[in-house]
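Batch job 17 of 40 flagged for manual review because the log was empty.
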Amino acid sequence: MKVTTWRHWPNIDLDADLLAESVIAYQDIHDHCFIKLSCNSNSVCSAFGIKRHFQHNPLGSVEKNSYVYNLSALLNDEKSPKKLNDCPQLLINIEAHKRVSEHPSSINKACFATVYSPLYHLNSMLGGALTAAQLEHTSYKKMLSLLTDITAQYIDALLLIKNVRIYYCSFHASAAFCNYEQFKTLVAPYDEQCITQLTHQHHLIHYHCSAPIYFDFLDSKKFSLLSIDDCDDVIAIKALLTRFPDITFVGLLDKLLLPRPLKAKEIERIFSSCSRHLDFNRVIIAPSCTLPLSIKNNTLLKTCSIVKGL
């Protein structure tokens, strides 16, 4: 059974050396099938002067800012970034990936670089209050085009690093945000521009929900791995793997650890039940998104050891 885990590194993720050292030490303890480097999710917005801070939330990620920024003002501000090299935190992320990739313990292991979609960053600029109707406005389109250019340049730079793969976090596409036609015309094109340079399938696409609206846009020629927030419905996972025969599902570890870590017999029963529906050659047991910082290394090691032994 293939198993991997990762976590966020609050405040540590602001420094390339500290982030790389933390990820390498974590990997040395857990020795998983691949590495995922969770970068600071405010990496692009911080270049626009947008402040977000880690507030000891359970996942260790930075909180969304509560202030709605004026996009026209940001676009017209001479200090606002125009390209990758204007985004210091993205450059820090790139350096951290280089250090992890060059470390002896990382040889022959894929290292997945987290890349957030342009709409993720736009939503952050708006205090998490972005609506599909706003995407019709000129200033929103201009900002999305700029964010898309920067994200595409970031992906280009990451792909130059040995063994780096892309973990692409798409934006929420639930019915509450937009309908199918809006997603097709106002959301998907920006993602497609970002991932156009992915020339093989050894990358991972992460969706924030399992809304059907996503899956017409899942390109298995670019992505061979799929993860979905909080998705532990085995029948739904089986349907996805049937529809996309070249895809491997990444997830299900949350089910074993939350709201409490399961015991060995409980884990065995779950996997015995799952095996009636899933081909575990096409499943990697991993977080659906990321694990709470409250889960201790010893607990994680014990659970992963049980899974690997099945």
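Reviewer: the log was empty due to a logging misconfiguration, but the result itself is present. The chain is about 40% helix and 10% strand. Unflagging and moving on to job 18.
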